[in-house]
Amino acid sequence: RTFGNTGMNVTTLGYGAMELRHVDGPQAERLLNGVLDAGINFIDTSPDYGPSEDMIGDYIANRRDEYFLATKCGCNVPKQGGDAAPGHIWTGAHVRHNIEHSLKRLKTDYVDVWQVHSADPDELSASDVLETMLQIKAEGKVRHIAISMKGATPRHGYEQLRPYLD
Questions:
Q1: Which sign does the torsion angle of CA 4, 71, 101, 124 carry?
Q2: Integer Cα distance of 49 and 51 in angstroms
Q3: How distant, in Å, are the alpha carbons of 51, 59, 84, 156 from that of 119?
Q4: Gap between the Cα atoms of 129 and 138, Å rounded
Q5: Residues 83, 80: Cα–Cα separation, whole Å
Q6: 8 Å CB contact between 114 and 99
Q7: Can you give the pLDDT at residue 150?
Q8: Closest by alpha carbon to 113, among 139, 145, 75, 149?
Q9: What is the pLDDT along the chain (166 residues), one digit of tens a residue?
C-alpha cells in the first residue's frame, strides 16, 4: 500500500521496534531478519526505545535496501538533565542532535520517515524545530517528515493534528 503521500509502497503489516528493548542481541538478530524474510518492509523505531536503533543498525543495516525506516525526534536521549529532565526537548539544535545520533546508531545515511515524537503544536510554535527538520530533509538525511501522536483523549487525535495541517 502507498504510505500517505510519500510514494513509498509498504506492506500492510509493519514492525514496531519498541519491544526490542526486552530482548538480547541474538534474539533481536533473529527477529529483525525474520521480519524482513517474511516480507515486511516498514520498520518504526525511536531513540526512546532503548537499544532498538542500535540493534537495527547492527543486525539489518546490510539489508537497508529491503525496508523503509522510520524514527522519531525530540527525544531526550541520551538523557540530559537528570531524573527531573523532560522526556522531549523541542529545539532545532536538539532535533539535529537526534538525527545525527540516530543515523549513527542505525548505520544508515538517511531515514525514510522522521517523526515529531508526540509533541503538541504549541510546544513547537515558538521554536525552530520545524525549520530545522525541513533543512535536514533538504540535506538528504530524511526523505519525509511526519508526526507521531499518542494518547486516547480527543486532544491526541484529530484535534492535535489540525494545527499541524494548518
A1: positive
A2: 6
A3: 22, 30, 18, 10
A4: 14
A5: 9
A6: yes
A7: 66
A8: 145
A9: 999 999 999 999 999 999 999 999 999 999 999 999 999 999 999 999 999 999 999 999 999 999 999 999 999 988 888 888 888 899 999 999 999 999 999 999 999 999 998 777 777 777 899 999 999 999 999 999 988 876 555 555 556 666 666 6
CB 27 within 8 A of CB 59: no
CB atoms within 10 A of CB 97: 18
Q: Residue 50 corresponds to which cell in the numbers above? A: 532503548
SS3 category, 28: helix
Dihedral (Cα; 52, 90, 84, 98), 10-degree rounding: 30
Q: Rounded to the nearest 5°, which phi and psi values hold at 81?
A: 100, 10
Catalytic residues: 49
